[in-house]
Here is the input.
Amino acid sequence: MVEMKKESIIVLALLALMISGCSPYSGKTPADTVVSPLGDKISVTEGCLVYALPMTVFELDIIAEKRTEVPGPYARYASELTGLDNVITGHTEKWSLAGIRLSAVEELDPSQFYIIQGTAMMQTNMLALRKSGLVLDINPDLYSSATYSNLQGDPDYAGMLFPDRGAYEYVVTKTDTAYRLVKVDTAFIRVPYLVQKKKGMSLVEEAREAAGRLLELREGRHMILTGETNVFPQDGAALEEINRLEREYMALFAGKSFTETRHFRIWITPDQQMAGQKTTIFTFSETSGVNTSPDGPGEPVLMEIGPSGKTRDLNMVMRPASMQKHANPADRVYYRVPDVAEINISLAGENLCTARRLIYQYGSLVALPANFIIGK
Here is the structure.
């Protein structure tokens, strides 16, 4: 009987060992999976997993327009020769803000890197957290799409603004008769000869020429439209060319104005000090345009971030005292729950942009057990 009891005990012990050996989590202690913040005192060993928590960065695309006005060369004679009033008399440049586009991108938070070290077979919820955007891999593809070129578009007018001044000729040739003395025997006689002199036209003469051609164009267009002329072709192409020339000669008196569109890109990383405060992100001036430095000349453009505080209570959940004694802080997977915030961008009291975005920095840091599987 004693021997039969010993054999039964040995068989039960062997069965227990077999059952425990078939389970992948048998004998697993909290030390099998260790999650630690990455720092100078933490060494990365082979087989470790490094991840980071996301950080929200605002990308601002600032669209500014520069309107340039250039006076015509005959601006002072506009009223006298063409009857035009309120023409451009001085060269001016004026900037205006056409719009601000705000987008949020997720980057790796350099202060929130973590390392997972496991000494046994482990399963984590990293895949589910990564798909949800709560943690980020050390992946260079995250920054591959963040490209931007500082090259701006060319202005509407390149080169000469007034290539045709409207005159038929700008140099007048005048012929005069001159005399020279020639000695003949004991006397001197005056011998005439012709002298050609070239003289440039004055500004008022050029203006009169341009005004005359402008009136000729208008008269010719009127004759084509009324059928009083036999000049061919009498079609739309002729009228379009007449209209183009009229605009060019009109600009000689009225001046030209054109608008250039420029894009400026800046990145803002919200921190806790910006919450609920108005922060200068760049400056703007009608004379100098956009200055991407907050200390530049011009009026400050302010950003105000108002966190909703939806995730504030997550930090208040504490373990019971009985569980804290046996808790191991190194077997947790840390992730971030973002908070919703309202963003307002204004200039001199005028609202330029309003948006609602998720900001990870304003959220809470939450931990899950390292071997807890989401969805299992």
Notes: The two ends are 48 Å apart (CA to CA). Residues 203-226 form the longest helix (24 residues). Residues 29-145+260-369 form one domain. The longest strand covers residues 92-118.
